[in-house]
Design a protein that fits this description.
Layout (H helix, E strand, L loop, with lengths): L1 E2 H7 L3 E4 L5 E2 L10 H4 L12 E3 L1 H8 L3 H11 L6 E4 L7 H9 L3 E4 L4 H16 L2 E11 L2 E7 L5 H10 L3 E14 L2 E5 L7 E4 L3 E4 H5 L7 E3 L2 E7 L15 E4 L2 E10 L5 H16 L4 H22 L1
Parallel strand pairs: 4-5, 5-6, 8-14, 14-16
Antiparallel strand pairs: 1-3, 2-6, 7-8, 7-9, 9-10, 10-13, 11-12, 15-16
Helix pairs in contact: 7-9
Length: about 300
Protein backbone atom coordinates (compact mmCIF):
# COMPACT_ATOMS: atom_id res chain seq x y z
CA UNK A 1 0.00 0.00 0.00
CA UNK A 2 1.19 3.50 -0.85
CA UNK A 3 0.37 6.34 1.54
CA UNK A 4 -1.14 9.27 -0.36
CA UNK A 5 0.39 11.92 1.90
CA UNK A 6 3.87 10.39 1.63
CA UNK A 7 3.57 10.18 -2.17
CA UNK A 8 2.57 13.85 -2.45
CA UNK A 9 5.24 15.03 -0.01
CA UNK A 10 8.09 13.03 -1.55
CA UNK A 11 7.31 14.27 -5.07
CA UNK A 12 6.42 17.82 -3.95
CA UNK A 13 2.92 17.74 -5.42
CA UNK A 14 0.28 20.45 -5.08
CA UNK A 15 -3.22 19.19 -4.36
CA UNK A 16 -5.83 20.44 -6.85
CA UNK A 17 -8.70 18.18 -5.85
CA UNK A 18 -8.65 16.56 -2.38
CA UNK A 19 -9.63 13.01 -1.53
CA UNK A 20 -10.47 11.25 1.72
CA UNK A 21 -8.54 8.16 0.61
CA UNK A 22 -5.33 7.97 2.64
CA UNK A 23 -3.70 5.02 0.85
CA UNK A 24 -3.73 3.33 -2.55
CA UNK A 25 -3.47 -0.34 -3.40
CA UNK A 26 -0.63 0.05 -5.90
CA UNK A 27 1.25 -3.15 -6.72
CA UNK A 28 3.65 -2.05 -9.47
CA UNK A 29 6.10 0.82 -9.88
CA UNK A 30 4.61 1.96 -13.19
CA UNK A 31 2.53 4.91 -14.32
CA UNK A 32 -0.11 5.34 -17.02
CA UNK A 33 -0.53 8.20 -19.47
CA UNK A 34 -4.22 8.13 -20.48
CA UNK A 35 -3.93 9.40 -24.05
CA UNK A 36 -5.60 6.30 -25.52
CA UNK A 37 -8.35 6.38 -22.90
CA UNK A 38 -9.13 10.02 -23.72
CA UNK A 39 -9.60 8.83 -27.31
CA UNK A 40 -12.07 6.18 -26.15
CA UNK A 41 -9.86 3.05 -26.13
CA UNK A 42 -10.41 1.06 -22.92
CA UNK A 43 -9.55 -2.44 -24.18
CA UNK A 44 -6.41 -2.24 -22.10
CA UNK A 45 -6.42 0.39 -19.35
CA UNK A 46 -3.94 0.24 -16.46
CA UNK A 47 -6.34 2.13 -14.18
CA UNK A 48 -4.68 0.73 -11.04
CA UNK A 49 -1.62 2.91 -11.66
CA UNK A 50 -1.16 6.64 -10.96
CA UNK A 51 -2.34 8.57 -14.02
CA UNK A 52 0.00 11.19 -15.51
CA UNK A 53 -1.31 13.95 -17.78
CA UNK A 54 1.33 15.65 -19.90
CA UNK A 55 1.30 18.28 -22.62
CA UNK A 56 -0.12 15.95 -25.29
CA UNK A 57 -3.04 14.73 -23.17
CA UNK A 58 -3.84 18.23 -21.91
CA UNK A 59 -3.81 19.73 -25.41
CA UNK A 60 -6.24 17.06 -26.55
CA UNK A 61 -8.54 17.75 -23.59
CA UNK A 62 -8.53 21.49 -24.17
CA UNK A 63 -9.47 21.10 -27.83
CA UNK A 64 -12.57 19.01 -27.09
CA UNK A 65 -16.03 20.65 -26.89
CA UNK A 66 -17.08 21.13 -23.26
CA UNK A 67 -19.89 18.54 -23.29
CA UNK A 68 -17.76 15.95 -25.05
CA UNK A 69 -14.92 16.56 -22.57
CA UNK A 70 -17.30 16.21 -19.62
CA UNK A 71 -18.76 12.95 -20.99
CA UNK A 72 -15.34 11.50 -21.73
CA UNK A 73 -13.99 12.36 -18.27
CA UNK A 74 -17.05 10.85 -16.56
CA UNK A 75 -16.27 7.51 -18.21
CA UNK A 76 -12.56 7.86 -17.45
CA UNK A 77 -13.15 8.50 -13.74
CA UNK A 78 -15.64 5.65 -13.48
CA UNK A 79 -12.61 3.40 -13.00
CA UNK A 80 -10.97 3.02 -9.60
CA UNK A 81 -8.00 5.30 -10.29
CA UNK A 82 -5.54 5.97 -7.42
CA UNK A 83 -4.77 9.56 -8.40
CA UNK A 84 -4.10 11.92 -11.30
CA UNK A 85 -1.01 14.10 -11.66
CA UNK A 86 -0.97 17.10 -14.02
CA UNK A 87 2.58 17.95 -15.10
CA UNK A 88 4.33 21.13 -16.29
CA UNK A 89 2.28 23.24 -13.88
CA UNK A 90 -0.64 23.17 -16.31
CA UNK A 91 -4.12 24.17 -15.21
CA UNK A 92 -6.56 21.27 -14.97
CA UNK A 93 -9.95 21.76 -16.71
CA UNK A 94 -12.87 22.31 -14.37
CA UNK A 95 -14.62 19.25 -15.80
CA UNK A 96 -11.67 17.08 -14.78
CA UNK A 97 -11.65 18.41 -11.21
CA UNK A 98 -15.41 18.03 -10.88
CA UNK A 99 -15.41 14.43 -12.16
CA UNK A 100 -12.51 13.54 -9.84
CA UNK A 101 -14.25 15.10 -6.83
CA UNK A 102 -17.44 13.11 -7.48
CA UNK A 103 -15.41 9.88 -7.47
CA UNK A 104 -13.25 10.93 -4.48
CA UNK A 105 -10.06 10.71 -6.57
CA UNK A 106 -7.15 13.03 -5.77
CA UNK A 107 -5.75 15.31 -8.47
CA UNK A 108 -2.27 16.77 -8.04
CA UNK A 109 -0.14 19.24 -9.93
CA UNK A 110 3.63 19.34 -10.42
CA UNK A 111 5.85 21.88 -12.12
CA UNK A 112 8.18 19.15 -13.37
CA UNK A 113 8.34 18.11 -17.00
CA UNK A 114 6.40 14.92 -17.68
CA UNK A 115 9.47 12.76 -18.33
CA UNK A 116 11.27 14.02 -15.22
CA UNK A 117 8.23 13.47 -13.03
CA UNK A 118 7.74 9.98 -14.46
CA UNK A 119 11.32 9.07 -13.60
CA UNK A 120 11.02 10.50 -10.08
CA UNK A 121 7.68 8.77 -9.42
CA UNK A 122 8.87 5.38 -10.67
CA UNK A 123 12.02 5.68 -8.54
CA UNK A 124 9.90 6.50 -5.48
CA UNK A 125 7.47 3.64 -6.10
CA UNK A 126 10.34 1.22 -6.68
CA UNK A 127 11.73 2.11 -3.28
CA UNK A 128 8.38 1.91 -1.49
CA UNK A 129 7.30 -1.38 -3.11
CA UNK A 130 10.68 -3.10 -2.88
CA UNK A 131 11.06 -6.12 -0.55
CA UNK A 132 12.46 -4.91 2.79
CA UNK A 133 14.20 -6.34 5.81
CA UNK A 134 15.73 -4.85 8.96
CA UNK A 135 19.19 -5.95 10.10
CA UNK A 136 21.29 -5.21 13.17
CA UNK A 137 24.51 -3.49 12.13
CA UNK A 138 26.18 -0.25 11.12
CA UNK A 139 26.10 1.08 7.56
CA UNK A 140 28.81 3.49 6.46
CA UNK A 141 29.78 5.03 3.14
CA UNK A 142 33.52 4.66 2.55
CA UNK A 143 34.68 6.52 -0.56
CA UNK A 144 31.25 5.90 -2.04
CA UNK A 145 31.23 2.18 -1.19
CA UNK A 146 28.42 1.12 1.14
CA UNK A 147 29.89 -1.10 3.87
CA UNK A 148 27.58 -2.94 6.25
CA UNK A 149 29.33 -3.80 9.52
CA UNK A 150 27.79 -6.78 11.31
CA UNK A 151 28.69 -8.75 14.40
CA UNK A 152 27.73 -9.33 17.99
CA UNK A 153 26.73 -6.42 20.18
CA UNK A 154 29.79 -4.79 21.76
CA UNK A 155 32.30 -6.06 19.20
CA UNK A 156 33.21 -2.51 18.17
CA UNK A 157 31.07 -1.69 15.12
CA UNK A 158 30.10 1.80 16.24
CA UNK A 159 33.64 2.64 17.37
CA UNK A 160 35.04 1.60 13.98
CA UNK A 161 32.35 3.66 12.22
CA UNK A 162 33.16 6.68 14.40
CA UNK A 163 36.82 6.51 13.40
CA UNK A 164 35.79 6.25 9.74
CA UNK A 165 33.65 9.38 10.14
CA UNK A 166 36.64 11.16 11.70
CA UNK A 167 38.62 10.16 8.60
CA UNK A 168 36.08 11.87 6.33
CA UNK A 169 33.61 9.08 5.53
CA UNK A 170 29.84 9.05 6.15
CA UNK A 171 27.45 7.39 8.58
CA UNK A 172 24.21 6.05 7.13
CA UNK A 173 22.79 4.01 10.00
CA UNK A 174 23.89 2.85 13.43
CA UNK A 175 22.52 -0.26 15.15
CA UNK A 176 19.38 -0.60 12.95
CA UNK A 177 19.58 -0.74 9.15
CA UNK A 178 16.48 -0.87 6.94
CA UNK A 179 17.41 -2.69 3.73
CA UNK A 180 15.32 -2.74 0.57
CA UNK A 181 15.86 -4.60 -2.70
CA UNK A 182 15.59 -1.97 -5.44
CA UNK A 183 16.59 -4.28 -8.31
CA UNK A 184 17.54 -7.90 -8.90
CA UNK A 185 21.15 -7.24 -7.88
CA UNK A 186 21.10 -4.07 -5.80
CA UNK A 187 20.31 -3.40 -2.14
CA UNK A 188 19.92 0.00 -0.54
CA UNK A 189 20.16 0.61 3.19
CA UNK A 190 18.98 3.53 5.26
CA UNK A 191 18.31 4.45 8.87
CA UNK A 192 14.85 4.63 10.46
CA UNK A 193 13.87 8.29 10.69
CA UNK A 194 13.52 8.20 14.47
CA UNK A 195 17.23 7.44 15.07
CA UNK A 196 18.71 9.00 11.92
CA UNK A 197 22.16 10.62 12.47
CA UNK A 198 22.41 9.29 16.03
CA UNK A 199 25.04 6.85 17.29
CA UNK A 200 25.49 4.99 20.56
CA UNK A 201 29.00 4.83 22.00
CA UNK A 202 29.40 2.69 25.11
CA UNK A 203 30.72 4.75 28.02
CA UNK A 204 29.56 8.03 26.44
CA UNK A 205 25.97 7.45 25.39
CA UNK A 206 24.05 8.85 22.41
CA UNK A 207 25.78 11.35 20.14
CA UNK A 208 24.46 13.31 17.14
CA UNK A 209 26.90 12.80 14.26
CA UNK A 210 25.41 15.50 12.04
CA UNK A 211 25.60 18.14 14.78
CA UNK A 212 29.05 17.06 15.92
CA UNK A 213 30.78 16.55 12.55
CA UNK A 214 28.58 18.44 10.10
CA UNK A 215 26.13 17.58 7.32
CA UNK A 216 28.86 16.03 5.16
CA UNK A 217 29.43 13.33 7.80
CA UNK A 218 26.03 11.67 7.22
CA UNK A 219 24.15 10.19 4.27
CA UNK A 220 20.47 9.30 4.17
CA UNK A 221 20.89 6.08 2.20
CA UNK A 222 23.57 4.06 0.40
CA UNK A 223 23.77 0.91 -1.66
CA UNK A 224 25.13 -2.10 0.24
CA UNK A 225 28.25 -3.16 -1.65
CA UNK A 226 30.22 -5.02 1.01
CA UNK A 227 29.38 -6.85 4.24
CA UNK A 228 32.11 -7.05 6.88
CA UNK A 229 31.34 -9.40 9.76
CA UNK A 230 33.32 -8.36 12.83
CA UNK A 231 34.11 -11.10 15.32
CA UNK A 232 36.53 -11.50 18.26
CA UNK A 233 39.90 -12.92 17.20
CA UNK A 234 39.99 -16.69 17.78
CA UNK A 235 43.49 -18.03 18.39
CA UNK A 236 44.31 -20.81 15.96
CA UNK A 237 41.46 -20.06 13.56
CA UNK A 238 42.50 -19.90 9.91
CA UNK A 239 41.64 -16.51 8.44
CA UNK A 240 41.88 -15.68 4.76
CA UNK A 241 45.29 -14.14 4.11
CA UNK A 242 45.32 -13.96 0.30
CA UNK A 243 41.79 -13.09 -0.81
CA UNK A 244 41.74 -15.41 -3.81
CA UNK A 245 38.39 -16.93 -2.87
CA UNK A 246 35.35 -14.66 -2.94
CA UNK A 247 32.80 -14.96 -0.14
CA UNK A 248 29.21 -13.74 -0.30
CA UNK A 249 26.31 -13.02 2.03
CA UNK A 250 22.78 -13.33 0.66
CA UNK A 251 20.28 -10.66 1.68
CA UNK A 252 16.78 -10.68 0.14
CA UNK A 253 18.07 -13.02 -2.55
CA UNK A 254 20.94 -10.68 -3.53
CA UNK A 255 24.54 -11.92 -3.20
CA UNK A 256 26.77 -9.29 -1.59
CA UNK A 257 30.57 -9.64 -1.27
CA UNK A 258 31.49 -10.32 2.35
CA UNK A 259 34.59 -10.60 4.50
CA UNK A 260 35.29 -11.66 8.07
CA UNK A 261 37.13 -9.05 10.13
CA UNK A 262 38.78 -10.50 13.26
CA UNK A 263 38.90 -7.99 16.12
CA UNK A 264 41.63 -7.82 18.74
CA UNK A 265 43.43 -5.04 20.64
CA UNK A 266 45.90 -3.07 18.55
CA UNK A 267 44.21 -3.51 15.17
CA UNK A 268 43.14 -0.27 13.47
CA UNK A 269 39.77 -1.48 12.24
CA UNK A 270 38.85 1.77 10.48
CA UNK A 271 41.91 1.62 8.21
CA UNK A 272 41.27 -2.06 7.45
CA UNK A 273 37.64 -1.31 6.51
CA UNK A 274 38.77 1.63 4.38
CA UNK A 275 41.30 -0.58 2.55
CA UNK A 276 38.67 -3.29 2.03
CA UNK A 277 36.32 -0.75 0.42
CA UNK A 278 39.01 0.60 -1.88
CA UNK A 279 40.10 -2.92 -2.76
CA UNK A 280 36.51 -3.73 -3.75
CA UNK A 281 36.46 -0.65 -6.00
CA UNK A 282 39.61 -1.92 -7.75
CA UNK A 283 38.06 -5.37 -8.22
CA UNK A 284 35.04 -3.75 -9.86
CA UNK A 285 37.25 -2.23 -12.53
CA UNK A 286 38.99 -5.56 -13.10
CA UNK A 287 42.08 -5.42 -10.88
CA UNK A 288 42.65 -7.93 -8.06
CA UNK A 289 45.92 -7.69 -6.14
CA UNK A 290 45.60 -11.30 -4.97
CA UNK A 291 45.08 -12.57 -8.52
CA UNK A 292 47.92 -10.41 -9.82
CA UNK A 293 50.29 -11.85 -7.21
CA UNK A 294 49.09 -15.36 -8.05
CA UNK A 295 49.70 -14.67 -11.76
CA UNK A 296 53.26 -13.50 -11.07
CA UNK A 297 53.96 -16.58 -8.95
CA UNK A 298 52.63 -18.87 -11.67
CA UNK A 299 54.81 -17.12 -14.25
CA UNK A 300 57.88 -17.52 -12.02
CA UNK A 301 57.13 -21.23 -11.51
CA UNK A 302 56.66 -21.73 -15.26
CA UNK A 303 59.96 -20.00 -16.00
CA UNK A 304 61.85 -22.07 -13.45
CA UNK A 305 60.22 -25.26 -14.69
CA UNK A 306 61.19 -24.35 -18.24
CA UNK A 307 64.79 -23.63 -17.27
CA UNK A 308 65.06 -26.92 -15.39
CA UNK A 309 63.71 -28.85 -18.41
CA UNK A 310 66.30 -27.32 -20.73
CA UNK A 311 69.13 -28.39 -18.44
Amino acid sequence: MIQAADFAKALQLTELSPSTRTEWDIRTADLNRPGMQFCGFYEYFAFERPQVIGKVEMTYLENLPVEQRRSMLEKYFSFDIPCVIVCRGMRAPDELLEAAARRNIAVYQTSMLTTKFTFAAITYLNRRLAPQVTRHGVLVSVDGVGVLLTGESGVGKSEAALELIRRGHQLVADDVVDICKVSDNRLVGECPEMVRHFMEIRGIGIIDIRTMYGVSAVAQSRSIDLVMNMEPWVQGKAYDRLGLHEEYTTILGVKVPSQTLPVRPGRNLAIIIEVAARNLSLKRIGYSAAKELDRRMQEMIMKRTGQGGEE
